[in-house]
Amino acid sequence: MIIMSAQPIQVSPRPGTSHHAELSPQAETTLAMFAHLSGLLGIVGPLVVFLVLQEKSQFARKQALEAINFHITVILAVPVGIAFVFAGNLFGSYQPITVIVAAALIFPIVAATNAGTGQFYRYPLAIRFIKI
């Protein structure tokens, strides 16, 4: 008769290795660029990069967090800009919403370019809602 134990088998990693595979510098910069550029389509892309790379790449994770904070700021600024557009109809000014849209398109491209060269990019005027 064979007696089975209910305890799980512990497998220890090989010496010198970690539980998480390390990413190459090229992969880190590519994922950081993806985090910034995917923000052009919404906040989901940077959020996925942030959540998936919890332990694998600090650089890509921090860049994804910057993108998330910037896009949260843009999401909150759009209604304010729209309110200024309605108020601007009285005065003939559409500049606030134009500036918000331009920033939402230009800054992620600049950030992706910097991330591609391995430089940490911090979005100007972004409110840091989430901090690590």
From TrEMBL:
Q: Which Pfam families match?
A: MamF_MmsF
Kindly give the InterPro entries that the UniProt entry links to this protein: MamF_MmsF (IPR019109)
Membrane-crossing ranges are: 33-53, 65-91, 97-121
* Keyword Membrane in annotation: yes
Where does this protein chiefly localize?
Answer: membrane
Write out the coiled-coil annotation as residue ranges.
none
Task: Give the UniProt subcellular location, in the record's own words.
Answer: Membrane
The membrane topology term of the UniProt record is:
Multi-pass membrane protein
Instruction: Kindly indicate whether the keyword Membrane belongs to this entry.
Output: yes
Q: Which keywords appear in this protein's UniProt record, sorted alphabetically?
A: Membrane, Transmembrane, Transmembrane helix
Output this protein's name. DUF4870 domain-containing protein
Which organism is the protein's source? Paenarthrobacter aurescens
The major lineage groups are: Bacteria, Bacillati, Actinomycetota, Actinomycetes, Micrococcales
